[in-house]
Amino acid sequence: MQPVALVTGAGRGSGAAIALRLARAGAAVVCAARSLESVHDTADAIKAEGGLAWAVHLDVTDPATYDDAVAELEPELERRGGVWWLVNNAGIAETAPFLRHGRETGVDIYEKHLRTNFHGPRRLIERFAPAMLERGHGRIVNVASSAGLRGYPYAAAYVASKHALVGYTRCAAAELEGKGVTMNLVCPHYVDSPMTDGTVGRIVKKTGRDPAEVRAFLAKENPGGSLVSCEEIADVVARLAGGDRNGMLVELVGGRGLIPDQEAEQWRTA
Ligand SMILES: NC(=O)c1ccc[n+]([C@@H]2O[C@H](COP(=O)([O-])OP(=O)(O)OC[C@H]3O[C@@H](n4cnc5c(N)ncnc54)[C@H](OP(=O)(O)O)[C@@H]3O)[C@@H](O)[C@H]2O)c1
To answer: Domain range for residue 59?
Structure first.
């Protein structure tokens, strides 16, 4: 049967690339994000290639929207046995000195990041993994970050939320061993995506530096010397979804371009 893949944050950046790549790998793809217009674009791109896709409004911080999305897709989803592959890709990244919790905005930056980057994936897993376990087959890929493995200045909230996701995934994968459902981590360094455009914009605003110079600086920060491409992330996610390895952590260090090169990826046990 054609597997159904749910990809969060599928409206742009790596999520859009992952959705397209999984459709090319034969999945019917549920493209999810808060902005419906953006996920319609991704679903349309998949359909233009002859694939099957749906666009749904889903806010990872609001579990009621998970059920709304599922209800919207019935009976198509039920006929296909529900969600087989879940890619937790949606994420946010804001910067602030570690002692500033958001006094200016009234929003606690730590809570905000944890809600989206950690509790979002956890709640989606809690929503969809039980059916996978019942079926004895499922693939869960969590897109964390190098920020789940190390620290970066002015990114304490983002880094803490990604560390939480990494730690959680390590435990869950260990519990899933041998049950037919796998859970793996993808940890890219700086990615060539709209999120990084935002980072560049913020640095430019603060420092007055040249945008191209800032982008080149971020690329140099990556161990591979260039930004990770969204297609590279999509390729790794497709390999994890299509295979049966569990508890892997794939670190994407940049410098691979679009050509498969195992040396630019580090596959290791989570
Ligand atoms: N960019 C990097 O350098 C980098 C590096 C390592 C890891 N990552 C991780 O890779 C993932 C994708 O990043 P990206 O660079 O592609 O980011 P992006 O270009 O900013 O895209 C983020 C996507 O997530 C969606 N999203 C955000 N909040 C959401 C929510 N509450 N519910 C549902 N969807 C939500 C956005 O759509 P809406 O706003 O319409 O909801 C958008 O489609 C993230 O988890 C990020 O942390 C990024």
So the answer is: 4-190+230-269
* Structural domains in the chain (count): 1
Q: How many Å lie between the centroid of ligand 1 and the Cα of residue 179?
A: 30
The CATH number of residue 89's host domain is 3.40.50.720
Of the candidates 66, 158, 168, 190, the residue annotated as catalytic is 158
**Residue with CA nearest ligand 1 atom 25:** 9
Ligand 1, residues 6, 7, 12, 203: which to mutate, most atoms within 8 A of Cβ? 12
Q: What token pair was written down for 106? A: 């009234």
Q: Please report, in tens digits, the pLDDT of each residue of the chain (270 residues total).
A: 899 999 999 999 999 999 999 999 999 999 999 999 999 999 999 999 999 999 999 999 999 999 999 999 999 999 999 999 999 999 999 999 999 876 666 789 999 999 999 999 999 999 999 999 999 999 999 999 999 999 999 999 999 999 999 999 999 999 999 999 999 999 999 999 999 999 999 999 999 999 999 999 999 999 999 999 999 999 999 999 999 999 999 999 998 654 444 555 778 888
Distances (CA, A) of 159 to 97, 114, 132, 169, 265: 12, 10, 30, 15, 21
